[in-house]
Amino acid sequence: MTATLRRAESPTPRTAPPAPRARGLSLKRRDALAAYGFLTPWFLGLFFITIGPILASLYFSFTDYSLLGDPQWVGLDNYREMIGDPRLHSSLLVTFQYVFVSVPLQLGLALALAMILDRGVRGLPLYRSVYYLPSLLGASVAIAVLWRQIFGANGLINQVLGYFGIEGAGWVSHPDYALGTLIVLNVWTFGAPMVIFLAGLRQIPAMYYEAASVDGAGPVRRFFSVTIPLLTPIIFFNLVLQMINAFQTFTQAFIVSSGSGGPSDSTLFYTLYLYQQGFGSFEMGYASALAWLLLVVIGAFTVLNFVAARYWVFYGD
Amino acid sequence: MRSESPRGPRGRYRAHRGAIAPVAAVAALIVMASGCGGGDDGTVELRFSWWGPDGRHQITQEVIDLFEEKHPEITIEGDYTDWDSYWDRLATSSSANDAPDVIQHDEQYLRDYAGRDALLNLDEYSDQLDVSEVDELVRGTGELEGGRYAVPSGVNAFVIIADPQAFEEAGVEMPDDSSWTWQDYVDIAAEVSEESDGELVGAQNNSFNTAGFEIFARQNGESLYTEDGELGFSPSTMERWWDYTVQLQEEDAEPSPAESIERDADGPDRSVLATNDGAMAGFWTNQVGDLANTADRELEILRFPGETEFENPGTFFKPAMHWTVSADTEHPEEAATFVDFLVNDPEAAELMLADRGIPVNTGVREQIYDDLPEADAKGADFLSEIEDDVLPADPPPPQGAGEVVDIVKRINEDVLYGENTPEEAANRFVEEAEAAIED
Fold this sequence. Notes:
The structure holds two protein chains of two kinds.
Chain A: H1 2-9, H2 20-60, E1 63-64, E2 72-73, H3 77-83, H4 86-118, H5 124-137, H6 141-150, H7 156-163, H8 178-188, H9 191-203, H10 206-214, H11 219-247, H12 251-256, H13 270-280, H14 284-312
Antiparallel strand pairs in A: 1-2
Chain B: H1 8-35, E1 44-51, H2 54-70, E2 74-81, H3 83-95, E3 102-105, H4 107-114, H5 136-139, E4 143-144, E5 147-148, E6 151-152, E7 154-162, H6 164-170, H7 182-195, E8 201-203, H8 211-219, H9 235-250, H10 257-266, E9 278-284, H11 288-295, E10 300-302, E11 317-319, E12 322-325, H12 332-344, H13 346-352, E13 358-359, H14 362-368, H15 374-386, H16 401-416, H17 422-438
Parallel strand pairs in B: 1-2, 1-3, 8-9
Antiparallel strand pairs in B: 3-12, 4-5, 6-12, 7-9, 7-10, 7-11, 7-13
Helix pairs in contact in B: 2-13, 9-17, 16-17
């Protein structure tokens, strides 16, 4: 910020005679100053609420910090401890399962719905909004509480199953099903990628389809040879975004398991474990180290995505 | 576009002012935000935090109003939430040096805070805070190394609460709590489930927390924690305890694992007693009033099974909660005055009654006895009835005991689902709990 200011300032020495050209520059400078003035709140937020805490957590990750006492420097101990931490390993496993199952399912559903809506359904804006709604609500506490009730041992789902004589399981309280229930919850929030897919589908020129039809391509062929290739940039965008989101899932697991990650750690998401370490066990140093590991993991997968994208994303040139 | 700008030095000045205005506005906001909460008119403002159900929030507000009436120079701002979020909030606000002045605390977290110098040593404020009338059985519970950091709010005991109507519906006789064994408990619970054709369950699962086990360990001449803050029991004792859980599950005396987990997480208001779905559950005596209200039934308090089975009776008096003062408070004297009011004022006790346990001030306890609602009076009677049999309470749990709360929950889930045998569970508990309290 200061560097830019100085650069704007330097061509016009303070004592410079008011030549027409210099006056123009000083106006420019005024505008720049005003712009930075109005940006100040954002800069304050950036430095104090984002960058400051990020750097603080990097420092804490090398300390033993109990949250109530002062941090003690321990070097790489926290990172070494991760190697032999079974709950960390199981939380990574849970998170990977969640990401790699729920994201493809969610994108698949989003694309399918977008294709249907793209065929020109009457009342499209209404449908678009209705399907988008879960994306807005999905990560909220209220919905998680609701799901807990619906999928409870005596909840709505099991009552309906009961009418058909099927004995339902404890969808949120059995270790074999709890993660699946959360995956369903995530898939249900397909609205955001769907809206983006819909916009992408609208971008595909109709002439390609017409040309393909003339050449005798059926709907399936048209889908795989026209729609998919031209949609790959959008698919890629959604994939990266949803993967990063899924890695950071917290609220749903926190509410549905009452913060325990249970039953039997089956919904112990990475972020939930991080939270437990920091605020439950007062191991803020270790929790900070966990946060940095998460950053590395997400970063690695994002880089991997971009590298892989070279081989399957088609930008039409 | 820029033509409206005046020329010359004046123009430049204007532009500067334009740039500075938003900065100044933000600065002003920050100053305002950090500056509020001060008492310019000579009054002292204290923040007071507690957890609890809705009923407690109302009662506590009335207590605050009464205090402010008697001490016009002090105003109190209430800060309340439910149990789960309470500890997250307290931990974050404490680390930000923004802890409430007066804090309702729990035994399991007491050493975590006192040991890290987050609580005020109340010995230094004995002019304001008088603890001479506090019941001797629990007076020591707020004393940690080097001083008094907490005053108990009331006395509690962990008990079996039973629903006589459920027993009647199942056609099973109420147990005789003066002599029943743990095996009797399992058998009776199984009988209720069976006789009611599954309409009712005998008991709610009781091994999600350590209170029941603590009684069991004391009955066997052991304890959950020792004076030195280590584990005070042998793994085989805990194995036997979890063995009863397995038996209760096998005989359908308890709800299914899934339902047990959900009922535990949903708290007393969704317990089998509250929803009239079961006959027995383990709770603290101060919870019986709320339970009876939710259940809309008369409930009975029973002694834990096994009190005459082994070496000792195991039931113990526990301080229901503790009053503490933050070490960061700017007004320690006023905070101590408020704690004194909470502990010793008869009118405050008349409002709170048994909600935070039977009052620890023995004089006050006598005074409010006649005002207690029926269920709470039963609790008070029960406590005075067992008083002679009870051995002194164990010392406050060590640092890290808050983590044990989660550990036992996790292991119990695995026991319910058969992932861990009682033996595995006991060894796992010892291993994980030791790691937690050694940190």
